[in-house]
What we know:
Chain A is α+β, with helices and mostly antiparallel strands. Chain A has helices spanning about 25-35, 90-100, 105-120, 125-130, 145-155; strands spanning about 5-10, 15-20, 55, 60, 75.
Amino acid sequence: MQPGKRVLHLKVNGEAVDVLTETRKTLLEVLREDLNLTGTKHGCELGECGTCTVLVDGEPVLSCLMLGAEAEGSEILSVEGMARGSEPHPLQQAFVATGAAQCGYCIPGMLLTAKALLEHNPHPSREDIREALSGNLCRCTGYTKIIDAVEMAARAETP
Amino acid sequence: MDDLRRVSTATNPDSEAYGFTPDRPVTTIAIPAPPTRPEKPEGLSVVGKSLPKVDAYVKVTGSLKYADDIVLARTVFGRMVRSPHAHARIERVNVERARALPGVVAVVTGDEIPVLYGHLPSSPDETALAIDKVRYVGEPVVAVIAEDELTAEEALELVEVEYEPLDSVMSIEDGLRDDLNKIHEDSRKRANIHKEVHLEFGPVAEGFAGADRIFEDEYFFDGNTHAPLEQHSVLANCELDGKITIWSSTQNPHYLHRVMASVLGMPASRLRIVACPVGGGFGAKTDVFNHEVVAAYASRKLGRPVKFTLTREEVFYAHRGRHPVLMKLRTGVLRDGTITAVKLDTWLDGGAFSSYGVASTYYTGALLPVTYKIPAFTFNGVRVFTNKPPCGPKRGHGTPQPRFAFECQLDKIADELGLDAAEYRRRIAVEPYSTTANQLRITSCGLDQCIEAVNTRGGYSAKHGKLPYGKGIGIAASAYITGAGMPIYRNAMPHSGAIVKVDRSGGVTVFCGVSDCGQGSTHMLATVVAEALGVDIMDVQVFMADTDLTPVDLGSYSSRVTFMAGNAARYAAESVREKLAAVAGPKLGIPPERCGFARRRVFDRDDPGHGLPLLEVFQLAEAHYGTLAGVGSYTPPEGIKGDFKGAGVGPSPAYTYSACVAEVDVDAETGEVRVERIVLAHDCGRALNPAVVEGQIEGSVYMALGEILMERSEYRGDLHKYPNLLEYKTLMSVDMPVIETIIIETDDIEGPYGAKEVGQGALLPVIPAVANAVADAVGVRINANPLTPWAVLKALEEKRTASKAGHASGAASREGAELP
Ligand code: FES
Ligand code: FES
């Protein structure tokens, strides 16, 4: 193997993948550049904006701050893997229904953060949602419709 | 046209004293007659419904491709060496060591692309890379292109640039004073002045002479930046035949196309610009950027795709954000508050280059008379160059600053004259179908309804002055353009064009050059076309912002998209509909005019049960006419522009109106201002999609709260203090107050289905409403933003000191002077 490279064994969006990557690359870069999963976005690459959030073993992680190598053996969920089969995830449906996506750039990170929230806390209050999303910046929406969407999805999941 | 009332506006004979000579003494602005009944098209099936956006699913599934998501084989990556000095001469550039680094494929220096460009053709002063001198910290000097970004980054370290530092000019005061230290040495203007504007309308001297009271205050609006979450990105690919395609996160593909052709010295037909969906614009991506030019140039040189994506720090240097503006505002009023005259002087800190600065300068004055009746108005604007990243258009372009000043002063006037600030504003609001002192044509206008609505819902009149210390309520109103009435370069061609194609499949495709920066242009086009043709909105495919595929549209700026591109698309669809009606009518045994189109059916309007499937009509029409397509274009009406130098900034086919009530809680111990509730009413003409309108209002409120509470481009010496998203404070989800939006519909007679803008206007009243609420809460008027805890504490302290010394009120504001 070339110096500075290694093979990572990951489970990405339910599929086992072995990917040859450079050891210096962040998980964000592995996803976007090596696996061509460009649904994960970036707004700073310094851990400031939350745009690059993915789930690593179910927990929200800023993929720009984690080296790909640190994710070795983990299960990664990015926005591309959220749908349940051919059905969009209830969060995705709620984001569509409320009009929560304006430019859409922050949305993948918001969706995954919200998904982790709902898994830990299926009946969050509006305050819980605000709190959970406070590390994810959005410059378009004023957060209002994003919070509405998470509330709506929580209701849809637990009738 | 017979149905036009002619309104004459005499200009003031004294105005020559201010260096402004009208071409003709009297200007005629054509005012259309108000509609006898509001044009409220009945039976709309798509317009007015909060349908999910047609591009919502691609956004929530991560499949929408922004510029940086596009990958081409053999792409090489660029980075730029940026100046560490605010102002310096470039003595020597040595790129040999960088060039020799393995993996580096090209190094580009300024002298290779020497053509001057600028967004406004009147003021080209930028080059792709600095040539003789640098003018701000962060200005690109050398570009390095390598096989991967990391190698390019490493090569930056190997580029040697020797500078001879010059004194820097970092403030408006410096820019006005310093005559020897010119940032642009070939400028013939005094000191570092970029643009100077002097305008006078109506009997100003008489107005002030006849006033019972004159209020005079100084305000300062600090600069801030758009900070779109998507960092600017470009991918340029020169094919072997020499044709270059550029995918960029730009709001203005057409202007980029023009500038790029001239800078690269090639025919525009050999250059294709594709504006990718923009991950947040707010004006940040309306200019031509260094990295765009260098990418195209380098791709042509290398025959390979070249990509540049800015880092977050670089986005702060690319800037083009809100101008810091110092303002002196003098308003004469009668005892009942009637305004007799206004004098506004503004000084703009423009940063290092012109950018949109000429327009920005005019905009600090042009829209002031569009909100309230101001019979006489004089405006002096000066923009200075400083050694900071260039300022440009940010949401509201040049208007939030004077609007802040004016609404704060109006609040003070109401206070001192003992008037209810909401009722007072309603009394002096401009009338629909009128002209302003500066010859702007107002058509539909819902200002009165907006103020009434926020007052009723927000309880301003009931609560103002009656809340406990620390709690406050404030009100403000505003107006904004629905699209700039003049293009950036002089021409008589349409501002927007669209093609609508329908075929035997039942599908409809719209082609329009406009871009989508998240405000919903894609959905707007689909809405307008679906409504006109009676198809389901999901039957419409939208192709946008591709200079090879789509008719020209001037871009996503000045809130012009819905009105201009919407009208173009509507006309295009209607021309197809005529053909459809011509074949459907005989088939239904009715005159074509009686054909209605809705829910995928063509039917008899007089007997809606009698109809045909639309698909069948598409096929009949295609059989009869051959391929079916229609074109439409939109040009603003004639006669909306005055006859004086500078009259090109301000005219718009329609103006929107908004009003805001803000409630705050101020902690007098810590100085912290918490906004608890915002009620905002906006007259958008007609809401094509109420959910989208609400979203634009909520986003505007959010951005406005950032500007009044915390966002600020601050410098420590020559350096931007915090070019990062951690310290450049923005509101987070936990900081947002309750927002109640009220949509006011006035059905503009020229707008598509009556629609006007919403993306920018709604930001304007929020900023002063919060400032006025703080004044209500703790009794100090702070005439500068942002209202940080520190600023509030300082103002409270000054008030304490002043009252100890026996003065009546805080030092932060100068009192209205009583005339003898
Ligand atoms: S890109 Fe990872 S936090 Fe901003
Ligand atoms: S939708 Fe644009 S940043 Fe959130």
